Amino acid sequence: MIESLVALVAACAVAVALLDKPSMRRSVAMAIAAVLVPVLIAGDQWHSGPITELRNSPGILTLVIAFGLALVGFITWVINRWPVMLPVLVLVALPFRIPLEVGGEDANLLLPLYLVMAGGVLASLIRARRGQFLPTEQSAWPRGLARLLKPLLAVAVLLYALGLFYSDDRSTGLQNLCFFLVPFALIFALMTEVEWSRERLRILLTVIVGLALACAFVGFIEFATRDLLWNQVVIRSNDFHVYFRVNSLFWDPNIYGRYLALAITMVAAGLMWARSGRDAVWLALVSLVLWLALMTTYSQSSFIALLAGLATLVALRWSLKWLMAGVGALVVAVILFGTFAGGLVKLDLGAINKQTSGRANLVEGGIDLFEARPVYGFGPGSFSVSFKEEVAGPNAPVTESHTEPITVAAEQGLIGLAVYLALILSIFAALTAGLRKVMPGLGASRGSRDPDRGPPAARAAVFAAFVAVLVHTLTYAGFLDDPVTWVLIAIGYSLAFPCRATSAA
Predict the structure, then answer these.
(1) How large is the average pLDDT for residues 261-267?
(2) What confidence tens digit (pLDDT) does each residue in 312-331 have?
């Protein structure tokens, strides 16, 4: 119960960080949330193997703490010296997870990203103490649903923390809050303050492309040698399949696939808006390499996400009407095929469940959990435990939910589902604010510009990437517990409602 109270305090601090303007109070709130995260994790895992070993080895513990603080101090200095390095460091750290044991299970922690978050928070605190607040003037202000984006993000974090008081798996829920929601929300708060120039956007695209190519290179080596760096589950799975799935530097091939799909979407946006033939050729070659890398993941959800992202770009760049007409024709064709071929093609639900690695059963079980507790659910982080206890039994082979709305409905009920849906609508409203003025596919004349907002190509790229992430979460989950989601929303929001520099920062 004490841990839940402390977690609620951390969530309240996050809410202040999300809703308050740049000030000493906001910086202090971010610092409180950042400090409470390791405290909560240490309390929750006090008797686990890694924590016990550190407690029994004070010399090693001191060395680890000193090394971590030194890294945070260096990152803080870099960000204060060159503020543009904050988004660069965030993007560089996004893909890298360090395998560690947490709660008796292997976990892949975003330790580099946590260090960047801590450095950014400390830099914000130092600037606040000196009175050097980041830009607050805006040339465009959010209206309608877009105004609810930050409040709904704060509500989502607070609701998750409140759910810990009754969760059937409080430890997992607490870990999700501390490892994902709190640090990612702080990164969002820091990233929305970035003033995006064309030069900084070029740096962003260069970092994304460079990291994606590096990950693809590692993936190609794994594919050629038939040897993965880690994840025994995937390694064993490869031994029993005719195909070989690659995860590169990621733990899961689907998360690797998601990252590649987002990178390809960003590169495709650059290709569609390229001003020179030379840039178009280079971007096309990069897209080809990343597409070949994506093929090695055999991630169905990532292919679907990529199609959604590319379709969004086509709609914005050329014609939303023709795209919708094409999608409608495809739907009609599928319906007609199902109607007239129904006697020849049998729908085998068991085969569908097998092809989707048990996800059909997970969806059905998640609906059963929602029906059992429709208002408030079984609590944050409880899906696996509740699925075993209430639906499938203790020997269920797969218990991790792979469909975000189902997860939210089962764990947080109608209350959480309402917040989730409202949040998605507010994100769409914020990321698409003013796009009708500049997107040819939405009726604007070619070459249109909106001086009050960021470059159209960059906004289209970020929005399409978010659509790809959203679609991926419908088939694999990982919405607010993926830092990519928060970073995309932050960049899209700051491009739609840009800050203008009012200080040396």
Answers:
(1) 93
(2) 998 888 877 777 777 677 66
The domain segmentation of the chain, as residue ranges, is: 202-318
pTM for this predicted structure: 0.87
Tokens describing residue 454: 């960021």
Question: With helix as H, strand as E and coil as C, how does 425-473 read?
Answer: HHHHHHHCCCHHHCCHHHCCCCCCCCCCCCCHHHHHHHHHHHHHHHHHH
β-pairing, 499-500 vs 137-138, is antiparallel
For 68, counting Cβ atoms within 10 Å of its Cβ (0-12 exposed, 13-18 middle, 19+ buried), the class is: middle
| 185: nearest Cα among 23, 9, 33, 3 | 33
Close Cβ partners of 327 (under 8 Å, ≥ 6 residues apart): 311
388, amino acid identity: K
Q: Record the tokens describing residue 112, joined without a space.
A: 């580099």
CA–centroid distance for 49 within its chain: 29
Alpha helices in 100-197 (DSSP H): 111-130, 149-163, 170-176, 182-191
Which residues 6+ apart lie within 8 Å of 374 measured at CB? 413, 414
Which residues 6+ apart lie within 8 Å of 132 measured at CB?
503, 504, 505
Rg of the chain over CA atoms, in angstroms?
23
